[in-house]
Every structure is written in structure tokens, then in C-alpha cells.
Amino acid sequence: MERLSETDSLFFHRSDALQTLIRTEKLSKIYPNGTFANKSVDFSVLEGEIHGLVGENGAGKTTLMKMLYGEEQPSAGRILIDEKPVSLASEFAAIKAGIGMVHQHFMLVPSLTAAENLVLGKEPKRARTRTFDVEAAARITEELSARYNLPVIARARVADLSVSMRQKLEILKALYRGARILILDEPTAVLTPQETEELFVELKALKQQGKTIIFISHKLKEIFQLCDRVTVMRDGRLIASHRVADVDIHQISNEMVGREVRFEITRPSMAPGERVLDVRGLAFVDDFAIPKLKNVSFSLRKNEILGVVGVDGNGQSELVEIITGTQKALAGTVRVHGVDITNRPPSVIRRSGIAHIAEDRMTVGTALPASIEQNLLADRYWSRQFSTKGGFLKRREMSAYSGTLVREYDIRCNSAHQPVASLSGGNMQKVVIAREFTANASILIIAQPTRGVDIGAIEYIHSKIMEMRSAGKAILLVSSDLQEVMGLSDSLVVMHQGEIVAYFPDASRVTDKELGLYMLGLKRQSEDEIRKVLHE
Amino acid sequence: MNSIRRFFVDRESLAPALVTLFAAVFSLLAGIVLIFIVSKQPLQSVQNFLLAPFLRSYNFYYLLIVMVPITFTGLALCVVYQLRYMSLIVDASLYVGAVVATAIGTQISLPAGIHPAVAMLAAGLVGGLIGLLPAILKIRWRANELVSSLMLNYVFYFLGSFIILYYLRDRSQTILSSLPFKRTFLLPRLVPNTQLHVGFLIAAAFVALVTIFLYRTRWGYEIRITGANPRFAMYAGIPVTTVVLYAHFISGFLGGVGGAVEMSGLYRAFIWQMDPSYAWDGVIVAMLARRNPKFVPVSALFLAYLRVGADFMSRRGDVAFEFITLLQGLIILILASDRIVNYFKERRLRKQVLKSQGESR
What we know:
The complex is a heterodimer.
Chain A: H1 6-16, E1 20-30, E2 36-41, E3 44-46, E4 50-55, H2 61-68, E5 76-81, E6 84-86, H3 91-96, E7 99-102, H4 114-119, H5 134-147, H6 163-176, E8 181-185, H7 193-208, E9 212-216, H8 220-226, E10 229-234, E11 237-243, H9 249-257, E12 275-285, E13 291-301, E14 304-309, H10 316-324, E15 331-336, E16 339-340, H11 346-351, E17 354-357, H12 361-365, H13 372-376, H14 395-408, H15 425-437, E18 443-447, H16 455-470, E19 474-478, H17 482-488, E20 491-496, E21 499-504, H18 512-519, H19 527-531
Chain B: H1 2-8, H2 14-38, H3 42-55, H4 57-82, H5 90-107, H6 114-141, H7 145-168, H8 199-216, H9 218-228, H10 230-235, H11 240-266, H12 278-288, H13 296-316, H14 323-336, H15 338-360
Helix pairs in contact in B: 2-3, 2-14, 2-15, 3-4, 3-13, 4-8, 4-11, 4-12, 4-13, 5-6, 5-7, 5-11, 6-7, 6-11, 8-9, 8-11, 9-11, 12-13
């Protein structure tokens, strides 16, 4: 095992003249469900640096950060700030110790203003009445916003702010509470390329002002753009810490996966076949009467991967839900091989030849307490292969079949009878993929296939998707990972506020910058250009 | 030996199994301590409490008889608990099932053997339909099934009493009683000169049937998947609404049959002066069985053992029968608290961590 050696750390101290601000000593964490998330981790961050923390999902990054932020308690080991052991029994204790965290899912109250959210729990009071001083809150917000160069609209309600502004507000919230160390958990996952660049400029400015930043990501490019040092975790262990200047992207990715990784997606060129899925004029309005889809039309052809690009929340999820039957359309039609399946139940839609990888594998794509086998067979247990005419389960066939899928799709587990909840994110996703890719469907609706999945599994899932394309499937791919959609798709549509605003017949001829303009709604193609996606 | 172990505990459920055992043993011990506190002759009382089934043969058979209705309600609740529903409508199903059986047992003439069978089937069907109601209310109007079932239990209790009082009452009796059952309706005794009836075997058969149904058929599979994650079940194409409905029908059916078995096995006429509330016993039985029907006989035996012991002790000494409710409360309290499960797990895991850290050094 590679570790930061004694001489290395001495070297850092001398050359950078930086002090260790926070470090952990033999920190371990086991969750009650048996997950050994952190194994004797010695992690250290120097004062005033931006420290990247990378690793596959399930490598233990988030657990380590949760212990630093007091959300989880270590099973063994200790945490030291300024070389003094501290006990971070809660988030309050962590905040007191100068640690702030920006979660992947923002912790904001949408119905309150930005200023109210910022001061929540530490409100400025009017001197005489001791009541909440709204004006002071707004003033504080504006001051902080200016000082740290993180623009937010103090008096706007959070519900009306953009995702990137909410993120800035989260950072300000931590700074307002006196954070010296900022932990950012995959902050770029929700941002467009333009917004990401903006964030990086702001984070570097924060560093200039003496803040220490821990930046979690699994996009290695970002680490190299932003960070001073980087720590790699794998399988709950700390593999190595490096100065970013001393390593290259390949070394880091190899350390993350534990073996050589290919970055290229190989895609044989292939002419698309006939139309199999026709979506026309779909409209949908959510429970809050907000239109989520407006007149969405496109067609999907055999041997084709059509990528759907867009900032999260611009109607992609609703589109997928309506096609697959978990949500009902207000208007419009969905046809498979010319047969209308609009608003039919999922059982009917599945039998018409649609398989679906749901974007949220924890709440929709799997039944966590149920076994791997039960999950693998949930859409086909009724077939003659697994049930007798009398309705009895053919248990031997079921376990032989699930055993085959476990092997074929490389699902790492002790047995097919263990609950899906005990698997890592990547292996959970493999369960979903194994089921959906063997469903004998002609159309695959794939949403966020690699969200929160480790690099090794991503590579595998991408190759499987390409295999499906070669096998003649028609594939709709929705992903908020721009690199992924661009790399896998033959053609692309961009969604903005529930509409298709652009269609690119050749995905390789478009840049991420250009897509960003459409994603943000700054550009829009002509109706004629968009209509080409109907292939009529 | 290994397969016996696997029958009782697979790896994942070791901790809950330990907690269940802990709940049983702890409640027994607490009972003993309680007796020592309240009784003037504690040793005598404890002996009566713990050894009742072995001191009198009557008690032993009584124990087996007590098991029958709570096995039925325990099975019924296992089915709805598998679905993660909380309906307690099985109480009404059992009560009305008993009333339906009474009607058939007093008003219709059929050959022996067939007579109770017809009554059980009819009671089961009516019980099943009643069982559907809270599920329908939940699906259609999102009414909480626990609340609606508790309310409906009163409705059906009074409806059942009304039928007995106005249509089936034996007016020659001073106490409330239905007309006497026809001889053909009565179930034969399993052991001569005891009250132990064939219903005991019927209950055992239902344990096997429900176990096979839940774990060996596609419908049981649908129930378990839907219970594990209804959104997933819907997504995978399982007809969730249908599943919820037939699971509740089956649950009610079991209650109805249980009511009919009680009538034809134990009684000569319907003489319940109030609702016996076997559903609540079923809750304890199903919880102790960890919603797995194959454990229902064991947990029903345990509950019956507590009952019979408390009954015997109270009649022979100075400890009131009601002390049993304290023990039941304790059992539920322990079973319902996840923290205890986590305590067992975490203690084991902590050892693992320290061990593996020792290795890595």
C-alpha cells in the first residue's frame, strides 16, 4: 500500500511552509449495516490549500467528510485540529471548530429568502425588541457576498434562485458561521461548464483570503484545474496523497481504480435503422401547476443512442417517467412500433418492449431490503420460465438464472440472496442494468446510468450500453454528466424549461461550451432544425 | 443441524432473532420479578405461572386451545405486515366470521364434516371482503389504514352483535347466547375428554399454506416485493393495487376462518359477550414471528403459555390476571425499538474494526 511517507510530509512542511490544519489518526468507521466505510485513515489537510479528495463511489470519501463534519461518529481513531484532538459529536461542534460543509443536496429552506437562510439559527436581533432584524440579515448577506465575491440576491426567495446561486449561498452560510475549513461535496455535479468555471474562480479567491477547502469530486480534470494537493481513497482506505503538480491524471485514476483505466469509449460507426419510438407533443404540469414539459416531440431509431442534455430539472425526469409509465401525460402520445402506449401502466409498457434504467436506483430502481435475486427477477417472475401454470415459483430456475446474471454482469456480492442494500452504489447499479439489459426490450430508456457509480463500473456500464446499441436497440440516454452523454450518444437534443431547444444529428460535431449556451437558454435553434429529430 | 439453524436464522436476521429471544426472556424475567413484588406467596405464584401447563393436564390442553385463534390472527397480520401495511381489520373479520358461522351452524342443515367446512369458507369470504375495506379506503382516499381499520372494527362488532341479538338469539336463555349449533356443525375432538378440537390441526394446515403462499408462489413474491418498495414494484410492472387488495382479502379470509373454527370447535352456541380482540394478540404473534408465518406457531405458543400461566396463577393466588398486559407491553416495546437491534450490531462491528486495525498494523 502506498502511503504518504514521513519524508514526503516533511518535505511539504518545509517547501510550502504550511501548517497542518486538520488531520485524522487511524480513523475507522463501520456502519450498523456492516459496511466498513473507512479503514484506519490518516488524512491531513494543510492550512490555506485546496485539497482534492477523489475516489470511486463507496471509497469512503463522504463517510470521512461526515465524520469531520460531526454527522457520523468514528468507530475508532481520532481527529485533530491544529494538532489538538477534538470531539466532533455533532454538526454544532464541527461548526464551532470552524468546519463548514456544503452538501450535495442543499440544506436550504426554499420558502425563505437568501438572507433568512444565511442567518438561520444565528439571527441578528434588533437591539431594543430582541426580535429578528430582517434588514440586518439582508445587509450581512450583501456584505459577505461582496467580501467573498460570491454573488447572491439577498432578498430573493431561495426557491427563485438558480442552482449555482443556491450553492454560493451555502458557501456563504458556512462562512457566516465562521468556517475556516470548507468541505464541498461534489459541488460541480449540478453545474453547467460555465458555472463550474465561475465557481473555480471564486474558490481560488477564497483560498487567497486564507480559507482551507476540501473539494470532493470524481471528475479528475477538475482536481487538476483547481487543487493544490489531492488525496486518493479506495475501498475505505487512504491510498495516497500527492501535490497535484507532481502527478498526472493517469496515475491518480489508476490509484482510484487499482488498475489501468481506459478513458476512450470505443464506438463502431453504425447507420441508424427504422423508427421504433415516436413521442409527439408531450405536455406535463406538476403538482404545483408548473409546466414541466411543453410540446416535446422526437423519434428514436434502431442502433441509435439519442442523448438528452440539460441542466437537471428541465423536464428530463418527467419525460422519462411518462414514457415508462410511472407518470401520466397531460397531452401528447407515445408510440412503440406504432402502438399507442400513452399513460398505460408500466406492466403494459414493459411488455411492449421498453426497458428502463431509473435515475434513482435507491428509491425506484431497486427494492433495497429485497435480495439481489428478487430484484433481478422483478419484471419477469411471472413468465413460464420462473413460474408454473399454478403460480408456484420455480426456485431452482430462479437461483440458477440470477447466479448467471450475477456472474455475467460482475455484481460483486457474497450470494444472490443478500439484500441489495448491502451492495455498493456501482454494484447496485449493475443489478439494475443486468435486469433491464436482459429484459428483451427493443427500446432502452436510460437515465443517469453512472450517477454516483465508481470509475471501474462506469467503464463497464458504458461498454454495455455500446453493446446494446450494436445489438440493435434504440436508446434514449438522459444524463447530467455532459462528458458521458457527448461520448456515448450518436445525436443529441437539449432540453430547457420543458422544451427541446436544439437537435444535433451528429454528437461529435458539437462542443460542451456550445451545449452550455442552449442549456442555459441563451440560444435556441429554429423550429425547422428541431423538427429534424422527428425523422419524418 | 446446519439446515435447522438456517431454518431459524439466516445471517442477515441474526440480530433481530436475538432481539426477539431477548424480548421473550426479558419479559418472562420481568414477570417473575413483578410477582415477587406484589405477591404474598411469590414462590407458589411463580411456580403456578411458569409450570401451569405441566401441573394440570387441563392447563396443557387449554394452552393448545388458546393457540388456535391467535395463530389465525397472527398469520393474517403476517400477510399485511409483509406488505408494510398496518391494518387491524382482522379483528372485525374474525368477529363477523364467527357470526356468519353461527348463522350457518344454526340455520342450515348439512352433513357432518361438510357443515363446518361450508361455514369456514363462507366466514372466510365475508372476512376477506371486510379485510378489503381499509385497503380500498387507503388506495382511493389515502385514508390511514390503521385508523380506518380500528374504526371499522367497532362498526362490524356492533353489526355482528345486532345480527346475533335480533336474528339468531336463543330467547329461552337469560344470558346472551345464540341458538344452539346443530350437531353436524361441531368439530370432532382431537383428544377424547378434552376440549382440544380438530381446529388445532386446521390452524397448523393454514400455517403451512400461508408460508407456501408467501414464499413459494408468484403472488407471495409480489406481496414481498411490493412491501419492500412499492415504487420499485410499480416501476417493475407489478400490479401494485391488485396486490394490496388480494393481500388484504387473504388476511381477512384468515380472520374469518379463525372465527368459524372457534365457533365450531370450542362452543355449542355463540356466547361472546364482547369482542375477544384477537387481533391485538395477532399483533404480538406476528411481531414475535418477525412477519414470517413459519414462526407463528412458536410465537403463538409462547403467548398462550404466558396467558395460561397468568390465568392459572391468578385463580390460585393473589396476582391479578391483568399483569399479563404488562408483559405484553414490554415485549412490544422491545421488539419495536430498532435501537436495540443496532446496539447488538454495533457492538459486534466495533470488535471487527479493532481486530482488523490490529491486523493492519
